[in-house]
Structures are given as structure tokens and as C-alpha cells.
Amino acid sequence: LLDRWFPPRPTAERKAYGERVAESLSSEEASLLRATFLSHLRDRTLPWETPVAFLRARRPAEGTRPQVDG
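Given the sequence above, the corresponding C-alpha cells read:
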């Protein structure tokens, strides 16, 4: 996973996490962030949870006002 987040070379199809944060950080800060991730997470298995939200939207009928539920 860390190799995908911080690839050694720029990725062709879409930017990796490390490439995106490097746009907002100095080169030194980006290197420090990468080193911190690697030192704390390499070769470790950690619990991971991903929240999921399902949304449903409908366009109001012509000539009616949108209704907000909740």
C-alpha cells in the first residue's frame, strides 16, 4: 500500500497520494512525510475501516418545489 501511496516515479494514469501532498509541501516536508509513514507503517498490519454512504437523489417533477426530508 505504501508503495502505491509513495511510488518511486510519477504515476502515469493518476496521481498518487504522495504526489498530491507534494504539491502543497516543500520537497523537504514531502520527504519527511514519506519517511514518517514508512517508519510507522511499513510491515505492519493495522485495522482499517472505511465508512460508506448511500445517497439517492430525484429530480423534482416539473413545476413543483424541491422537498427536503429529515
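The chain has a mean pLDDT of 86. Try to locate this feature in the C-alpha cell string yourself.
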